[in-house]
Write a structure and sequence with these properties.
Length: about 425
C-alpha cells in the first residue's frame, strides 16, 4: 500500500467558505502557512441554503479583510431593514446627529463564496486544496496534529499545529474530534427562493414577525430579491402537498407584500423542514471550530454569515502568534482566549434564539420592546442595534431600555 503524501503547515483549515477563507487570510497575514482544504472542486461552489445576509456586526471584519470594495463592485446591497409587527412597522432611521445607521451587505452566496475563496487563494501563505475531503484527524497523543484527506490525487496527511473546523453545521472535524454538542429543536421550517423584478414598498430589507410565523424579503446583487418564509411546523403538511402554491400564497398575504406579479423566479424553492440550533465545544487541544461548525443559529435571524466572519477573526486574533511560534503552551492559551470570547459574545444570543425557535408567541419582554420600537424612533434604533448583533441581550433588555420602552407605551396609551 502506498503511503500518503505528507505536507507540513502551521494551520490546517477544513472548509473554504466564509469562516474558513476569513481565518486563512488573517492567519496567513500574520505569517502562518495555511492549508485551506475544500471538499468541493468547483471554484463556483457555494452554499445554497442561506439568508444571504451579512450582519452589520461583521462590517468591520469585511473592512479588515479588505473585501468591502470588492463586494460593492460585485453589487452587494447595503442592508438597511424594516420589521413588521402587529403594532406596526419598526423603521430605524438616523438620529438627530445624522450619523448613518450601521449596515452590512446583502449578497448572494453564489457571488460571495467564489469571491472570498479566490481572494484567500491569492494570499501569500495560503494553499487552497480543492477537491480534498477530510477523512481522519491526526493526533499526537490527545492533541490534534493535522488531518488526513482524500482526493483525485490520492491520500494526503496535512500536518499542522492548529486544526480548524470551518466545515459547517454537519462538521466532519467536530465529529472526528468528538467534541461535546448541544442541539435545540427548531419548531419552524424554512423555504427560500430568488426572484428578479420584485416590486417592494421600499428599497430595503423587509422582515415580517407574524408571531409565530416569520418571513423576509431582501434585495441582493444583480437585481435579485431573496424571499424566505419561516412558518410554524403546524403548517408543514400544506406545504408538502403544494410547495409552490403554499409559498406564493404565504407571501401574497404579507402586509405590504412584495409584488411578484411581474417577477421571475430564478431559483428553485429550497429549504429545510428540520434545522436544529447546535452549540458545540469550540476548542480542544490543537483544534478550534468556527462559523456554523462552532454554533449553528436559527436562519430566522440571519446571523450565520456574520458570526462566521466574526468567529474567524476572533480565532485569528487570538492564535496568530502561537500559530507561527510553534509553542504548545502559547497555542493552549490562545485557544482558551478564543473559547472565552466566543462564549461571551454569542451565548446570550443563542439562548434567546433557541427559546424563540420553539415557535412560541412573543413573551412579555418581547412584546414590550417590539411595540415600543414601532412607536418611538430611539427605541427603533435600539432594536436595530440588537437585530444587527451590535449589542447583546443584556444591553438590549437592560433596566434602562425596559423602562424607556414602558414609558413609550404608556404615552401611547394615554394619547
Amino acid at each position: 500500500m502506498t503511503s500518503p503524501q505528507v505536507r507540513e503547515y502551521d494551520v490546517a483549515i477544513s472548509g473554504a467558505s466564509i469562516a474558513g477563507c476569513t481565518a486563512a487570510v488573517l492567519l496567513a497575514r500574520a505569517g502562518a502557512r495555511v492549508a485551506l482544504i475544500e471538499r468541493r472542486s468547483s471554484p463556483e461552489a457555494h452554499k445554497v441554503l442561506c439568508t444571504h445576509y451579512l450582519q452589520p456586526c461583521a462590517y468591520q471584519v469585511l473592512d479588515d479583510l479588505g473585501v468591502s470594495p470588492l463586494l460593492r463592485e460585485a453589487g452587494a446591497i447595503a442592508n438597511q431593514a424594516r420589521w413588521y409587527t402587529r403594532w406596526g412597522w419598526i423603521e430605524p432611521r438616523p438620529g438627530r446627529d445624522g450619523v448613518p445607521l450601521a449596515h452590512g451587505y446583502n449578497v448572494r452566496r453564489s457571488t460571495l463564496d467564489p469571491l472570498l475563496r479566490s481572494y484567500a487563494a491569492d494570499q501569500p501563505g495560503v494553499d487552497l486544496l480543492s477537491g480534498h475531503t477530510v477523512t481522519a484527524l491526526l493526533r499526537d497523543g490527545s492533541r490534534a496534529a493535522g488531518v488526513r484527506t482524500t482526493s483525485a490525487e490520492g491520500e494526503q496527511e496535512i500536518r499542522a499545529r492548529l486544526v480548524v473546523g470551518a466545515d459547517g453545521k454537519d462538521s466532519a472535524v467536530a465529529k472526528l474530534a468528538g467534541v461535546r454538542e448541544q442541539a435545540h429543536k427548531n419548531n419552524r421550517f424554512s423555504y427560500f427562493a430568488q426572484f428578479r423584478g420584485v416590486r417592494m414598498a421600499r428599497e430595503e430589507s423587509h422582515c415580517w414577525f407574524l408571531d409565530p410565523d416569520v418571513a423576509y424579503a431582501m434585495p441582493n446583487d444583480d437585481g435579485i430579491t431573496v424571499i424566505a418564509i419561516i412558518p410554524d411546523k403546524k403548517r408543514l403538511p400544506a406545504f408538502r402537498a403544494d410547495l409552490e402554491g403554499s409559498f406564493l400564497d404565504f407571501v401574497g398575504r404579507l402586509p405590504e407584500a412584495p409584488d411578484l406579479s411581474a417577477a421571475e423566479r430564478v431559483s428553485k424553492i429550497v429549504g429545510t423542514t428540520n434545522y436544529p440550533l447546535v452549540s458545540r465545544q469550540v476548542t480542544a487541544p490543537g483544534l478550534a471550530l468556527i462559523g456554523d461548525a462552532a454554533l449553528t443559529g436559527d436562519p430566522l435571524w440571519g446571523v450565520g454569515c456574520g458570526w462566521a466572519l466574526q468567529s474567524a477573526q476572533w480565532l485569528a486574533t487570538a492564535a496568530r502568534a502561537a500559530a507561527v511560534s510553534g509553542s504548545r503552551e502559547a497555542m493552549d492559551l490562545a485557544l482558551d482566549t478564543y473559547r472565552r470570547r466566543h462564549r461571551r459574545q454569542l451565548r446570550g444570543h443563542q439562548f434567546l434564539a433557541a427559546d424563540y425557535a420553539k415557535a412560541r408567541p412573543f413573551n412579555p419582554f418581547e412584546r414590550l420592546m417590539f411595540s415600543a420600537a414601532a412607536r418611538d424612533e430611539s427605541m427603533a434604533r435600539h432594536m436595530h442595534l440588537f437585530a444587527s448583533r451590535l449589542i447583546g441581550p443584556a444591553r438590549f433588555l437592560s433596566p434602562t431600555a425596559l423602562g424607556r420602552a414602558a414609558a413609550v407605551n404608556l404615552r401611547h396609551r394615554s394619547a
